[in-house]
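Researcher: I'm comparing several assemblies side by side, and this is the next one on my list. It has 224 residues spread over two chains. Same procedure as the others: predict the full complex and return the structure.
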Amino acid sequence: RKEVEQDPGPFNVPEGATVAFNCTYSNSASQSFFWYRQDCRKEPKLLMSVYSSGNEDGRFTAQLNRASQYISLLIRDSKLSDSATYLCVVSRYGGATNKLIFGTGTLLAVQP
Amino acid sequence: EAGVAQSPRYKIIEKRQSVAFWCNPISGHATLYWYQQILGQGPKLLIQFQNNGVVDDSQLPKDRFSAERLKGVDSTLKIQPAKLEDSAVYLCASTGSYNEQFFGPGTRLTVL
């Protein structure tokens, strides 16, 4: 079983739709949580950190449930420019420093 | 601020040949990472440096992969000899004080 699991998609949604991505992690020692965005043939970039209290950045809302080891990302009013792969990432202490564990990513395609 | 630089951007080699990738992290970033991203998967950590010391190389196939960061700044990753399954994007990332990882554009390796 992978340490971070995501539905690979693709999620095909029309512009303006609301879409939700889910992610589960298996290591309860995980400390920090993130969503990264990766455009086609580009490098991953940090989208937002995820906190237990939930956090919002414009149209994006991230949520963490430590008890269920579950992370979510909600995108409201989808834009064509939101089309990308969304990577769920957890951080845990691995030896001398923190290490990031990436999920396989969920592909989002927003259709006009 | 200049980002993480990598070269070459693309490399095509035949199996059993050798190849080297170069990375220059963001100025002042002490921590440097090499990741392997196979098509359809999330990045997988190969090796992590703190200044010029290795802090995690548990997932580096040491029979064929090697990496160094001699002066604590730029780094090279080498594969010798390459196998077909090494075809992937090799991403370099660096971290400063706030633990956000910044990725370079990657080197896309094709092994024929």
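Model: For your comparison table: DSSP finds no helices and eleven strands in chain B.
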